[in-house]
Amino acid sequence: VWENNAFKYARKVSPTVTAEKPKPKVAKKKEQPPPSTGTGTSGSGFFVSKQGHVLTNEHVVRKCNRVTVGDNANRQVQVAVLETDRRNDLALLKLSSTTMASAETKSLISKLGIRIISKSGNSDIPLSSNGLLRSDDVELGEEVMVGGFPYGDIFSNTIKVTRGIVSAIRGMGDDSGQFQMDAAVQAGNSGGPIYDENGNIVGVVISQLNRLKVAKTLGSLPENVNFGIKASTVRQFLTSAGLPTRWSERSKSMPTRELAKIAKRQTVMVVCHR
Prior knowledge:
274 residues, 6-stranded antiparallel barrel
């Protein structure tokens, strides 16, 4: 009996052995991606020389760590910013090198017609024609076509073209160096060429009217109000930058699809890396 009682007593007074509680699992911190080295915005531009000079808007390349151009967002090569004109919103760029041979740039080289410099020293660069700009200013009501890369590569990674007419021969604030057109222009078109029906460049896209801002002021929403910089203003800028150009002599009207081919050969996407 005592043994039984002792056994019961022992069971009561002996320390209770409990299983060790499992340590809570510490969630592993997910490795964060490295911080972005910068953001990029894009515009458009076009070639104006056989040496790889590109014209675009000054605001497209403003405050950029570096600038690249290409036939789409994935095939880009670096350029140097040679001259800028903030008042007229123009900038002159130049390919940093014409000896590019990487897979990423071969497509661009082919598109531009650049011949890679050979060991023999042949540095021919058959690029755009000497005469690009039309000598006469745009006329009220004439048809124009715009080439460029609106919204970068959001919708597609190719050049886009759109048509319209010259709505006014002066720009915002009665600026005589600009003109107004109704061709559809979006963010990313800035710096792109504006062609007449003969394939001559008559201007450079500068901006799209801020419709919401104007609506707040005037009480109505404006439609298709866009602006271009006149070719005469562009030529003055190029001459002052040390790159004189000849006037274009194209005088034969051509269908839109032929104009689009010209735009495709000359127009590039310009990317500002910040």
